[in-house]
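Before a computer can learn anything about folding, someone has to put a protein's shape into writing. The three-dimensional part falls to structure tokens, numbers that each stand for a local backbone shape. The protein below has been through that process, and both of its lines are reproduced in full.
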Amino acid sequence: MADRILIITGDAAETLEVFYPYHRLQEAGYEVHIGAPEKRALQFVVHDFVDGFDTYTEKPGHRWNADVALADVDPADYVAIVVPGGRAPEYLRNNADAQRIVRHFFDRQAPVAATCHGPLLLAASGVLAGRTSSAYPELAIDVTTAGGVFEDGGGVVDGNLVTARAWPDNGTWMKAFLEVLEGAKVSA
């Protein structure tokens, strides 16, 4: 059986930030599960940048089924986690099970990847103090308020943690994450 990786997400997650790691990690030989507050179909979104807008725009994206409810996740069944962005982390940061899972991986220095708004869940879980993290640039204040050091980069590595700004960084983000998985001797 292949090592398993859990993607923690929910409704309004950015489609590209879920699907790119999902398929890239499968391609590398991992068994990838989607964990969400409930085991049901999730509605993802597409964020894009439009000239003249002060922020990104949002449109409906793909729908995808969650494999497992977060309350039913035993983190010991997984070798790593991925926390995509979009708006899902805004409410996932209040989910006690999502926080429990995140803390499990940081307590064990196991591989964690987060992008865009994903570090909001890390901040709420109390694991960013003293850590360097990227995020969507407007979240720099959230990283620093949580005691972390913000770095504006696409594949920022701090020990077991690999972070990025948003979906345009998917390639550098997952390349760095696969290197961290390999360095942690986590193989597919």
Notes: Residues 109 and 159 are 8 Å apart (CA to CA). The chain has one domain: 4-183.
